[in-house]
Amino acid sequence: MLQRICESIHNYFIQETYIGTFTIASGAVSPLSLLEGQRFWLTGSALNDGIYTYHAEGITNDDDNRQADLLDETFTGTICALAIPRELSALALEVTDWLDQYGKTLASPYQSESVIGVYNYTKATASKVGGGSGIISWQDVFADRLKRWRKICL
Questions:
Q1: Sign of the four-CA dihedral 42, 83, 96, 67
Q2: CA 4 to CA 14: how far, in whole Å?
Q3: Backbone region of residue 57 per phi and psi (left: phi > 0; alpha: psi in -120 to 50; beta: other values)
Q4: Which of 21, 88, 114, 124 lies in the 20 to 30 Å Cα band around 33?
Q5: DSSP label at 42?
Q6: Which of 77, 73, 64, 82 is nearest to 13 (CA)?
Q7: Which of 37, 145, 39, 43 has the alpha carbon at shortest distance from 94?
Q8: How many CB atoms within 10 Å of residue 124?
Q9: What average pLDDT does the chain have?
């Protein structure tokens, strides 16, 4: 979820960028020098692009503490050391919880349905830029809380 949020707000909180040839073997990336618990964004890989968290005992996924399923490869690309605020990381967990609760409803092809006199259902909508409206998304729900970190472009 954290990667989707960073994409949405056009801000990866890049602290330092390393460009070169990297090797991923046995779940470790080398050469890589990061702080314990620091997140990094791996790009240019054929198999492992994404945001991960560095730990001395192994790399974990960006949204949880599960060991990342990195596939072995050597690639020329970019690794960006990130400085993602803790508050944004906590918000990513809230977004995940919100999607767990409402995701299936949002993905449903039905805008509304009703059974006469018994049941009535209509999806919430949000105004969209340029006019019109659409089904409300996690970006709409959390927009006010995300706007402080939003950049116009990367």
A1: positive
A2: 15
A3: alpha
A4: 88
A5: E
A6: 82
A7: 145
A8: 12
A9: 85
Query: Before 85, cis peptide (omega within 30)?
Result: no
Chain-centroid distance of CA 135 in Å reads: 20
Tokens 């730990």 belong to which residue?
55
Amino acid at 120: N
Q: In this structure, are residues 23 and 74 in contact, taking their beta carbons and an 8 Å threshold?
A: yes
Q: What six digits make up the tokens of 23?
A: 């090797």
Convert the pLDDT of each residue in 39-81 to its tens digit: 999 999 999 999 999 998 889 987 777 889 999 999 999 999 9
How many Å apart are CA 130 and CA 61, to the nearest integer?
Answer: 36
CB 126 within 8 A of CB 134: yes
* 90 SS3 class: helix
